[in-house]
Amino acid sequence: MSLFKFKEFTVAQDRCAQKIGTDAVLLGAWVTPHQEPRSILDIGSGTGVISLMLAQRFHHSNIEALEIDVDAYEQATENFENSPWGDRLFCFHAAFQEFYEEVEERYDLIVSNPPFYDAVSVKNEEQIEDKRQQARFDDALPFEELVYGVYQLLEKDGTFACIIPKDREKRFLEITAHFQLEPVRTTYIKGTKDSKVKRGLIEFRFRESVQNNPAIPKTEMLVIEKSRHDYTEDYISLTKDFYLKM
Fold first, then answer.
1. How far apart are CA 66 and CA 64, in angstroms?
2. What confidence tier does 140 reach under pLDDT thresholds 50, 70, 90?
3. Please, are residues 7 and 178 in contact by the beta-carbon 8 Å criterion?
4. pLDDT greater than 70 at residue 63
């Protein structure tokens, strides 16, 4: 069995198309809502690693995860049950579009590491051959559907956090603006000091809840490595509560 061991929990991932990657760990460690959330929703949970990280960080939060792939859903459920916080974690097997149409609850914090390949443009060039590729294409959950669902489920004073490829940030911000969601905190991610920005970690809140706060938005830069496997102090500080060797 493929196991990924963190300091306080272990994640099995042999049945998941999308394995644990830096993006998920960054989001789980980085998101910092303005108040401790009582209820959290993790959209597209995969292995459940983000939910587990948030359970470790926020001791009084109840966390619900959503996963459409049956194998990943079953594995996330097992990972939750085997963690120290199994009583606060639950995974639903459903598409997000179905979920937000049926659920009446609203959440203090919603997080997502969404599919990020532009399915239309890529499929014109190559055929999708395996589940790992399928898990990373956004035709199953287009950005418009993701943001609309967040609009439906987020508390008025809640926080939505996600990680987005830099080259798709402009379009994503157009969609979030349409649904009255404003970026309040952004951290751009670079592999090394001289490399290009690859990702953006972004927190959103509803426009009405932040319009009287002149300190918003806040923008930062995070560099992961000085050189191969030589991590920056900022990256170590962010992830040291999770990675075994940090």
1. 7
2. low
3. no
4. yes
